[in-house]
Amino acid sequence: MHKFGVFFVWLGLVLSIVGFAVGFWLMLTRGIGTFWIAMVPVGFVSLLVGVTLTQLYRE
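The structure assignment produced for this chain is given below.
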């Protein structure tokens, strides 16, 4: 479960960073980007789940 938690931490970080970067870039250039901005809360939840799993099931 520790490795599963680490995977979720990395997934959450990637989703949050990519969602912010691409979403704001699309909002500034084309006026759209809600799909990418919507990935940020999903990434944040994934990050919290990953940290919880990592802390509960330490090696």
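Interim note for the steering committee: The chain has a mean pLDDT of 90. The chain has three helices and no strands.
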